[in-house]
Amino acid sequence: MAPQRSGEVQLVTSENAESFFSNTDKPLKAILFTKKTETPNLWLRVAEAQKERCIFGEIRDGETSLMGQFGMTEDVLPKVVAVRSSTIPGQVERIVYDGPNDLERICEFLHDAIEGGPLVVELRREVQDLNRELRGLRAEAQAQADAVEAARAETARAKLGQVGQVDAVRKRLEGELAEVQARESSLTQRLASLEEEHAAAVAGLTEERDSMVREVAAIKEVHERAVVEICAGNYPSFQRSTVRPLKALLVTTKPDVPLLWQQLAEAQTLTTSFGIVRHTDAELLALLGTPVETLPRILLYANGEENPIVYSGIVTFEAISSYLEESVSGGEVCMDLRNRLDQAIMAEEAARDECAKVLKAAEASAEERDRTHGEEVRGLRDVIESLKKQLKDACAGAGEELRGVRMDTERRFAEAAAINEGLKQQLLAERAATRQAVQEAVIRLEADHRLERSEWEEALQGAEEVESQITALTGAVRATEKAVVRAASAVHVTLVRSARENERMRSSLSEFISDVAPAQIEPSLAYDPAAAQRMAG
To answer: Which UniProt keywords apply (predicted)?
Structure first.
């Protein structure tokens, strides 16, 4: 659902909040939290003045979910909040405006939020607080000066004849006036130094912003294609890039981008930056420590890491995609375990191939034995047939000789049958032993594979627990920093109030002394030397 518009201001609700905050046409989003049912004229004027640089929105108090997300309650409305992209990818900065409802002040706040973010806004706020404090001190100094002048005139009128007392009071008041003027000069110098620091901070932030803009332009130039041609010139920018959590580099001897690498770049474009290095770039190959003889090679870089991890797994689309996804979620531990798993799978496949070769050789040997045994049986049968034929051709009357020949033939036939049965049993036993060995090898490989996978899952779970603990510690550190900042602010406010209270007490004491001094001086003028001498005697 598109946001409802009132001129240049969009009415943000729970239904259109996602589309509003995902809009990146302008660098800043300015949001007004209000109780009113219509857009205030002041906010419309601000939107008209800053429409070229800001996206303006309005959230009313009926949107409880959005109010809760920004920590807003009904008693603090109206409130203006600026939302801008943070220097950390994927995060935003929220800056709350605490000034008066003035067009120029709000426009100045939005300009500072765009140019420098929370730091410039906070510096501007401190300078304004110091200016207000300085104006208050100047007003107090002026009031004290007026009081001194009034006291001086009153003293001159009331005690015109008491020249000594008037001179003393005048000197005291002049001393206090000089002290106030010295304090004013010190505060003026402090204000000037703070303004110089503010200007230096703004200049530094501007320079940092320009540098970041140039770096972003270089990164966009590197990542505008799915697979980037990497050379010695753009390799540092590719390595420092943090647009995606992982970078994959293919070092190859092929002149074109391989189809598999192009498909991987299109499938993993949200999590991985893909690059390709040609074998002709000798300088970059030396920098990567990759000789031409070892190509092709796949190198993986995590953000902030200079030393790559060499991929040594199965070179298929599914295997490399799974490896990249698990590397993003599990980090270096997961990448190491994945390498070990791929090596185990490759070893298992090699063992299976070896077992298949052994089984095939055993079957060929068994077939050869069967063929040899068949030839022997056929030879024996031929001998038997030959003997039978000779027997038929022999003399019919030689019965004893015939019986002897028959018995010898039957004996040879029985021996041949026994030899045949023995060869069959031996062949079956060897075949069963070979199959049993193959099955045991497969079972051992599967057990090793399950053990490797369980170790990998335990390590991945440990990595997730460590990551959650790090996230919790980071939140605690940020909360502690915020508490320290609030405590420092409270201490600063307390010191300022204490200083002002001391000034007021000093002023009251000065007025009291001015009133009491004449009553103490008059008895001294009525001093009787004779009476004092009698008392001393």
So the answer is: Coiled coil
Query: How far apart, in Å, are the Cα atoms of 338 and each of 178, 245, 300?
Result: 79, 18, 13
Query: Which residue from 327, 329, 270, 277 is spatially nearest to 301, judged by alpha carbons?
Result: 327
Question: Residue 3, preceding bond cis, omega within 30 degrees?
Answer: no
Percent of the chain with pLDDT over 70: 77
Domains 4-115 and 227-311 share a fold: yes
Residue 264 carries which side chain, given as an amino acid letter? Answer: L
Cα distance between residue 104 and residue 111, in whole Å? 10
Tokens 């420590």, located at residue: 289
Which tokens go with 6? 């009132």
Q: How far apart are CA 57 and CA 21, in angstroms?
A: 10
Phi and psi at residue 85, in whole multiples of 5°? -70, 140
Q: If you compute the radius of gyration of the chain from its CA atoms, what whole number of angstroms results?
A: 48
Average pLDDT over residues 401-410: 70
DSSP letter at 63 equals -
Q: Which band of pLDDT confidence, cut at 50, 70 and 90, is reported for residue 165?
A: low
Mention every residue, 6+ apart, whose C-beta is less than 8 A from residue 222.
228, 234, 237, 238, 241, 273
Class of domain 227-311: alpha beta
pLDDT of 399 above 70: no
Helices (H), 224-316: 235-240, 259-267, 282-288
DSSP 1: -
- Separation of alpha carbons 398 and 484, rounded Å: 128
> Which backbone phi and psi does 465 adopt, to 5 degrees?
-65, -45
Residue with tokens 């024996």: 380
Phi-psi region of 527 (alpha: psi -120 to 50; beta: other; left: phi over 0): beta
- The pLDDT tens digits of the residues spanning 194-226 come to 888 878 888 888 888 877 777 666 555 545 567
Maximum alpha-carbon separation in the chain: 199
Q: Does the pLDDT value for residue 98 go beyond 60?
A: yes
Amino acid identity of residue 361, one-letter, is A
Average pLDDT, the chain: 76
> Where does residue 140 rank: exposed (0-12), middle (13-18), buried (19+ CB within 10 A)?
middle
* Residues pairing with 58 in the sheet: 11, 32
Residues 6+ apart with CB under 8 A from 311: 297, 298, 299, 300, 320, 323, 339
Quick check: pTM over 0.85?
no
d(CA 207, CA 424): 90
Q: Which of 334, 341, 329 is nearest to 270 (CA)?
A: 329
Query: Which tokens go with 405?
Result: 């020949």
Question: In whole angstroms, what is the distance from residue 309 CA to residue 298 CA?
Answer: 8
Residue whose structure tokens are 């199959």 = 435
Q: Is 229 helix (H, G, I), strand (E, B) or coil?
A: strand
Fold of 4-115: Glutaredoxin (3.40.30)
Contact 275, 250 (CB under 8 A): yes
